[in-house]
Amino acid sequence: MAPYESDDAVDAAQDETPRSGRRKAARYAVPVAVVGVAAATIGLVPALADSGDPDLPKISAQQLIEKIAKSDVQQLSGTVKVSTDLGLPDLGGLEDGLLSGAGGGGSGDGSSADPQAKLTELVSGTHTLRVAADGPDRQKLSLLERGAEYSLIHDGKDVWGYDSKSNEAYHSTAAGSGKDHRSEPPATPKDFADEALKAVDDTTSVTVDGTAQVAGRDAYKLLIQPRQSGTTVGAISIAVDAKTGMPLKFTLTPKSGGAAVLDAGFTQVSFARPAASTFDFTPPKGAKVTEEKDEAEARGHAPKHGDAPTHGRAPKHGEDFAEGLKGTGGPTVIGKGWTSVVTVDTGAKGGLPTGSQGGDLGGFLGSLGEQVDGKFGKGTVFSTRLVNALITDDGKVYAGAVTKDALVKAADAAK
Fold first, then answer.
1. 98-153: per-residue pLDDT in tens?
2. Is 386 inside a domain boundary?
3. Domain for residue 338, yes or no?
4. Which of 73, 29, 27, 22 is nearest to 43 (CA)?
5. Cα angle: 27, vertex 196, 343; to 5 degrees
6. Separation between Cα atoms, residue 340 and residue 336, nearest integer Å
7. How far apart are the C-alpha atoms of 389 and 382, rounded to whole Å?
8. Is 262 in the same domain as 340?
9. Threshold 0.90, pTM exceeds
10. What is the CATH number of the domain that holds 369?
């Protein structure tokens, strides 16, 4: 089916709510650059629509974005399949060390039921999620694993995470009614679509690219494409339910081609109200229960009023990611739009430690990098299919969804 008429320069219908800064603390520049940025940028991904070409009334891109913005689905349940392919190698036993700087979890000194720790599992591979919602104060997300299940339950003021594999539970209190963004990771097509639409500006082309059927429902396909060269983002496709306006599928493909970097879509969905018992949770007998404040104190810092979320919400280009890096060395943004590059001075002089000096982690990461030089001096570029990062020998990090050449150019310009 031919694409519908388009509204390329779509500037309206964006979420203008100020977004709180995100703390992206890192033990070393490498985890921040390679994994932290990848996790943060994961929200910029579209979904490939299922086969099917329903005959729907024509709609413009502007109208479709407004339809998404007005969507107010309060009750639903369903199954979501999430596939992520950043092109990262099998990390094996080094995974915990790599991801410890990306989300605050997985450091080995906290609960395995901490949502921030579980989020890192979505950075690679294919995962099946069961989701349910009944208004703003009741949501449940379950990550189905081999022989185990991880559940995140928000019921009123309580937020529970439970890992059946370790029989550990994590409890926190939601600050008021509504979705607790501190504890709930982005996982559904709507989560990803909301983040992607925040990236729509005059550097972006937005069109309606026909129709599809997703999870048995008729949908329009919204296509988001960068107008700029130099970015690694090829396109974002969002399948939007024709009746409710809710995103059903979200897929981001890289400019280099091949499989999607991220593909998240419903395989089954119902808009009936879930049973109230869906959101009931009591820690099983013998389960280890960790309170949010207890874990914060164990890590040496108690949460303060206004603390920002630390898990991987997608930035609005580089500007938002820089905001989230405040306090880690004075981040700045070079460029604009899809080719913006975030730079931060880590203070770690001498570049990446390798060999016996850097241990297994440093040696492993060093083998993945490519040595580069320019007016800025020398450094190492770490690449994924979407996010690239340059770590210079004088301790600066340049990162973004841009090509290696764009990183070197940004580093030269900043010199």
1. 444 433 333 345 788 888 777 677 778 899 999 999 999 999 999 998 889 999 99
2. yes
3. yes
4. 22
5. 35
6. 4
7. 5
8. no
9. no
10. 3.30.310
